[in-house]
């Protein structure tokens, strides 16, 4: 097996972009809610978890595109 196998790079790029966008969207949404005077932060996370997952999936496809066009 090669030192940097192509499949491992694809998984790494896709997963890292997914996690990055997932956590960034969640953190900025929570901070905006908290700054505007929100009381129950856990309720907004529970209510918007599917939005965070959708944004994370966009990151997965961006990572795949980076791998597909060999942008490293």
Written description of the protein model:
This protein has three helices and no strands. The mean pLDDT is 91. The two termini are 20 Å apart. The protein has helices at residues 6-35, 41-47, 49-68. The protein has 72 residues and is mainly alpha-helical. Helix 1 (6-35) packs antiparallel against helix 3 (49-68).
Shape descriptor: elongated
Would you tell me the overall average pLDDT? Answer: 91
Separate helix tally: 3
Instruction: Quote the distance from N terminus to C terminus.
Output: 20 Å
Topology:
Elements: H1 6-35, H2 41-47, H3 49-68
Write out key terms for the chains shown:
single chain, 72 residues, mainly alpha, 3 helices, 79% helix
Nutshell version of this structure?
The protein has 72 residues and is mostly helical. It is 79% helix and 0% strand.
